[in-house]
Amino acid sequence: MRVDRTAVLAAVGSVVCVVIVLLWAGGDVYTALGDSDPGRLTSLAFGVVRTLANAAATVTVGALAFGAFVVPAPPKRAQLTAHAYAAVRTAATAATVWCCAATSAIVLSAADASGQTFGVALEHLGGLVAATEEPKAWIFSAVAAAIVAVGARATLTWTTSVLWLVPALVGVLAPVIAGHVANGAWHDVATNAMVWHVPAAALWIGSLVALRAYLRRPGSSAEVVLKRYRRLTGWCLVVLVLSGAVAGAVLVGPAGLHSGYVLLLLLKVFVCVAILVLRARLRRPLAAELVAVGLALGASTGLTQLVPPAWSRTRPSPQETVLGYELPDPPSFTEIVLGWRFDLLLGLGAVLLAVAYLVAVRKLRRRGDAWPAGKTVAWLLGCAVVLVATSSGVGRYAAGMFSTHMVAHMSLNMLAPVLLVLGGPITLALRVLPHGPRQWVTALTHCRATRLVAHPAVAATTFVGSFYVLYFSDLFGAAMPFHWAHQLMNIHFLISGYVFFWLVIGVDRAPRALPHLARLGLLFSVMPFHAFFGVILMNKQTVIAEYFYRTLGLTWVPDLLTDQRLGGGIAWATGEIPMLVVVLALLRQWAVADRREAVRFDRATDTGHDDKLAAYNAMLAELSGRKN
């Protein structure tokens, strides 16, 4: 216990020392950015508060994941075990600290960005928050932390503890994707890399803290939990190294290889690699991991404080500032087919899902079970559509042209979900996964949140209403200048389409199973609204998100209104083709279901065992007995 306590003190000391040294000896970072210096005291306070908020946020995420997936927990709606409940309580306490620190960071980040003292920034907080993006991110982070703190403290079931991971992950990502990675050339690649990097870091650090608390309690299954912990965090460390290398390469650039920024990046990479090596040599290198966590957190704070060397190069163009890259030429066949810019979020996600599906099918067939080839083809085609829509020339031009954006939108919202739901991924997972993860999938598929999202009225309204809310309000124009908002739109398109078509033609059993006639009615109910959306776009006389497209200055798009009307035509035409495919698939499923029911009825009649007839006769007998 003395060694463990010493390691904790060393970890905390590492964080404090690295932060103080960097903040007081890092040089004048404000002059390099053209900003005013708010003073050493404000700068130091913001660095300490930001470190505290990040540390508490990582503990929140990791403790929730530890209680849900590392500690043995019961299936859906069952009460949490004592150890899982303790991990959730740890997350609630950490979320409270996170909320307080994030609330303080709102004012301090506004003061730091504007070059004002704390008192002046507090006096003009409303205007400073409206003018800068980082304080908005900290507001979002504080709200997410408050939701998790209140919700986790009242949580007693496994499914609810897992659901709190969603706002926790969103809250821990918000300040990061609004920071350094959101600026300059190639910021789209850096932002996507950090979306992988930050959750992986939070899972590793928070799980380590929860594991230390778990091992100190009596009655713990140390060997089982350690095995699960090492498996989870081992993958997290690999993701940390790879994603950190990508984001670091973007922020450093070729001109900054000898800067202090690179030294901190190398320190983080060295820490992760050293932990992997120590795990291979030692059975329980927990003390070393605690010290490594302190060094990693301190280095991360330093990276957020220092100016990325890539910013010292030539000033980025307006297109690089907004998109992360330039679009000098109009879209051509060659540019669309060969001009790829790989999307590290959705593109890589599509590749990983395709590989995981193939591995599951291979495992199923190795043990002698069959799996329809048509489902495999449908899933792979769906993943291919997501990859092409986000990473090919379509995805590259979608951020700068409304017409190409509508091609990507229709592909992610109408075509890819239809193919993906026909692949039956939930059924495949239930047949391949072992007992524990299979219970997780079953519990999450049938929990209250899933039943709410998959309610026919909610799914249909979200699927169709999103078009009108997004494009016929100021939301689209406000979201397009930010890469994270563009990615959030793509994810929303994909998920809303998947949920809707899951109810209509999904192979997997939905939480609310509908008869085929109701499915057909649900499909026909949304088709007119989709057609009207395309018609309205084609006849609209004002340009949607005009300021954004004017800022890009694409000289080869002389008429934005013509391009918008072309996008409306694409939405109307391309949306009808997938709907026709869905109707044909639904009618085929309906015919197959009726054929199976007829065969079952004939078999029951031939054997003299008809459940429906027996139930009817029993009812008549009961009524006759009551009358007598």
Give your account of this protein's structure:
The protein is mainly α and 628 residues long. It has 29 helices and no strands. α3 (40-70) packs across α10 and α23 (456-471) runs antiparallel to α25. The longest helix is centred in the C-terminal third of the chain and has 48 residues, at 560-607. It starts with a helix and ends with a helix. 43% of the residues are buried.
What is the compact description of this entry?
With 628 residues, the protein is mainly alpha-helical. The chain has helices at 2-25, 29-33, 40-70, 82-114, 118-123, 125-131, 134-153, 158-163, 165-177, 187-215, 222-252, 260-281, 286-305, 318-322, 333-338, 346-366, 373-391, 393-398, 402-422, 425-432, 435-445, 448-453, 456-471, 475-479, 483-505, 516-539, 546-552, 560-607, 611-627.
Task: Explain the layout of strands and helices.
Elements: H1 2-25, H2 29-33, H3 40-70, H4 82-114, H5 118-123, H6 125-131, H7 134-153, H8 158-163, H9 165-177, H10 187-215, H11 222-252, H12 260-281, H13 286-305, H14 318-322, H15 333-338, H16 346-366, H17 373-391, H18 393-398, H19 402-422, H20 425-432, H21 435-445, H22 448-453, H23 456-471, H24 475-479, H25 483-505, H26 516-539, H27 546-552, H28 560-607, H29 611-627
